[in-house]
């Protein structure tokens, strides 16, 4: 692929390692050819790489396919996903998953990107609903400013929630920040 065709979120192979294009900066100096400063994110370990290219340079596009997959379970350091069309199972290691694994719920269907047969990236929904399993009792004191108290959720996370929350409440949590968003119901 010509350097002119590279755009944000394209998947590129550099030294046979897949990278995501996070940013492309185009500069046209007064003399000479155009310069492209590209910021890459390694899809294997999350590392950042910046490189400069000139007009006419070529890069190899990674053969990445995205499939809807159902999260099945976590076992022996791997997260197991099943392709909802072919029923093939794919494994993603804890290292590759990072902290995102805490938001996976059994049966959840999410987009998973594969390079060959290996999952390299997942796309979580922006919000997930989780149950508050344990929290301290509210003091009952009203204040002008919002107060938070710690709460343990069904996925093992501990976050700050408003003082009116109690065990059994279902809340919406932002997967990008890990923060409380709103109360959505109560488990009965």
Automatic annotation (TrEMBL):
<dbReference type="InterPro" id="IPR013185">
    <property type="entry name" value="Transl_elong_KOW-like"/>
</dbReference>
<dbReference type="Pfam" id="PF01132">
    <property type="entry name" value="EFP"/>
</dbReference>
<comment type="pathway">
    <text>Protein biosynthesis; polypeptide chain elongation.</text>
</comment>
<keyword id="KW-0251">Elongation factor</keyword>
<dbReference type="InterPro" id="IPR012340">
    <property type="entry name" value="NA-bd_OB-fold"/>
</dbReference>
<dbReference type="Pfam" id="PF08207">
    <property type="entry name" value="EFP_N"/>
</dbReference>
<feature type="domain" description="Translation elongation factor P/YeiP central">
    <location>
        <begin position="66"/>
        <end position="120"/>
    </location>
</feature>
<dbReference type="InterPro" id="IPR015365">
    <property type="entry name" value="Elong-fact-P_C"/>
</dbReference>
<dbReference type="GO" id="GO:0043043">
    <property type="term" value="P:peptide biosynthetic process"/>
</dbReference>
<dbReference type="Pfam" id="PF09285">
    <property type="entry name" value="Elong-fact-P_C"/>
</dbReference>
<comment type="function">
    <text>Involved in peptide bond synthesis. Stimulates efficient translation and peptide-bond synthesis on native or reconstituted 70S ribosomes in vitro. Probably functions indirectly by altering the affinity of the ribosome for aminoacyl-tRNA, thus increasing their reactivity as acceptors for peptidyl transferase.</text>
</comment>
<keyword id="KW-0963">Cytoplasm</keyword>
<dbReference type="InterPro" id="IPR008991">
    <property type="entry name" value="Translation_prot_SH3-like_sf"/>
</dbReference>
<dbReference type="GO" id="GO:0005829">
    <property type="term" value="C:cytosol"/>
</dbReference>
<keyword id="KW-0648">Protein biosynthesis</keyword>
<dbReference type="InterPro" id="IPR014722">
    <property type="entry name" value="Rib_uL2_dom2"/>
</dbReference>
<dbReference type="GO" id="GO:0003746">
    <property type="term" value="F:translation elongation factor activity"/>
</dbReference>
<protein>
    <recommendedName>
        <fullName>Elongation factor P</fullName>
    </recommendedName>
</protein>
<dbReference type="InterPro" id="IPR001059">
    <property type="entry name" value="Transl_elong_P/YeiP_cen"/>
</dbReference>
<comment type="similarity">
    <text>Belongs to the elongation factor P family.</text>
</comment>
<dbReference type="InterPro" id="IPR020599">
    <property type="entry name" value="Transl_elong_fac_P/YeiP"/>
</dbReference>
<feature type="domain" description="Elongation factor P C-terminal">
    <location>
        <begin position="128"/>
        <end position="183"/>
    </location>
</feature>
<dbReference type="InterPro" id="IPR011768">
    <property type="entry name" value="Transl_elongation_fac_P"/>
</dbReference>
């Amino acid at each position: 692929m010509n350097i002119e065709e590279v755009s944000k979120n394209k998947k590129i192979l550099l030294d046979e390692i897949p990278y995501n294009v996070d940013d492309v900066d185009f500069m046209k100096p007064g003399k000479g050819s155009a310069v492209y400063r590209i910021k890459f994110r390694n899809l294997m370990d999350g590392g950042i790489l910046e490189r400069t290219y000139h007009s006419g340079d070529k890069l190899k596009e990674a053969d990445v396919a995205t499939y809807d997959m159902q999260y099945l379970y976590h076992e022996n350091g791997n997260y197991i996903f099943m392709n909802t069309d072919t029923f093939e199972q794919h494994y993603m290691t804890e290292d590759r998953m990072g902290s995102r694994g805490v938001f996976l719920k059994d049966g959840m269907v999410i987009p998973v990107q594969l390079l060959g047969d290996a999952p390299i990236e997942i796309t979580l929904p922006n919000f997930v609903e989780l149950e508050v399993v344990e929290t301290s009792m509210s003091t009952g004191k009203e204040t002008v400013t919002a107060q938070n108290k710690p709460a343990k959720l069904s996925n093992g996370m501990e976050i700050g929630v408003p003082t009116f929350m109690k065990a059994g409440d279902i809340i919406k949590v932002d997967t990008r920040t890990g923060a409380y968003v709103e109360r959505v119901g109560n488990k009965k």
